[in-house]
C-alpha cells in the first residue's frame, strides 16, 4: 500500500542521504552567487604528443573555491549549474578566461597550440551560442584555431538541423570539436562525418584496463582504426601508467592526457612549461622522460 511504501521510503532515507540533500540545497543557493563573487578558478591540464612526448595543448578545467567548504569539483556543481540554468554563464566565463589567458601569453611572447574548453549540452544547443562564442573570441583577438570545444556524444544525440548549422558555423570559424568521453554515450556515429569534428577523446574507462584487459585493448584499437580512416585524431584520457602510455603510443594514438604527464595545473605553471618549450626551439619540451 501507499502507506507501506511511504514507510519504506522513509526507512531508506538514511542520515547520510539527508546530509547529502542538505549539502546540495546549500550549494545550490551558493552557486547562484559564485560567479559574481569570483569563486571560480581555471586549471589547465596539458596533453602530450605520443610521437615525442612534447606539449601539444591543454584542457581548461573548472574549480569552485567555496568560501567555507573549500574546493568543489565539477562533477558535483556542473549538473547543479545545468538545472539552475547557470551553465551558459559559467561556460562563457571559462571561454572568456581562456581567451584572455591566450592573449596574455601572446603579449609575453608565449604561444600555446590550443586550449580545449568543455561546453555543456544546454549551452552548445542554444541559438545564441555561436554568436556569443564569436564575440568572445574576437573581443580578445584570439586565433580561433587555438580554441577547441569538447562536447559529449549526448550533446549531439539528436543530430538535427540546428546542430548541423552550429557545427558548420564553427567549422567556418576554424574552431575544432572534440568528442569527449567517446564510447560512453550515444551509439550513432553519424556525427563523426561532420567536418567540424576533428578529435575523439577516448574515455578514461577504456584506458584504465590497458594493456592487460583484452576487451579494452580491442575497443581502443578499433576506435583508433575507425578514427584514422575518418581522418580524426585521437586523444586518450586518464593515462596514469607507463604501460598505458606504451600501449597507446605503439597503437598509433596521437595524443595523451592524464596524471602520468601532469595533473591539472595553475596558469602560471603552464606559462613556465610554455617558456621552457619556447626556449628549446629544436629539441621539444619533454613532460615525460623518453624511455630507452
Ligand atoms: P572531462 O572533460 O572528461 O575532464 C577530464 C577529467 O578527468 C578531469 O576531471 C580531470 O581532472 C580528470 N583526469 C585527468 N587525468 C586523469 C587521470 O590520469 N586519472 C584520473 N582518475 N582522472 C584524470 P575534473 O576536472 O573533475 O572534471 C570532470 C568533468 O567536469 C569534465 O570531464 C567535464 O565534463 C566537466 N567540466 C570540467 N570543467 C568544465 C567547464 O568549464 N564547463 C563544463 N560545462 N564542464 C566542465
Ligand atoms: Mg573534457
Ligand atoms: Mg572526458
Ligand atoms: Mg567527462
Automatic annotation (TrEMBL):
Residues annotated as domain EAL: 24-278
Lineage: Bacteria, Pseudomonadati, Pseudomonadota, Gammaproteobacteria, Lysobacterales
Signal sequence, start to end: none
Protein name stated in the entry: cyclic-guanylate-specific phosphodiesterase
GO biological process: regulation of DNA-templated transcription
Residue numbers of the full-length protein present here: 609 to 900 of 902
Keywords of the record: c-di-GMP, Membrane, Transmembrane, Transmembrane helix
A molecular function (GO) term: cyclic-guanylate-specific phosphodiesterase activity
Superkingdom of source: Bacteria
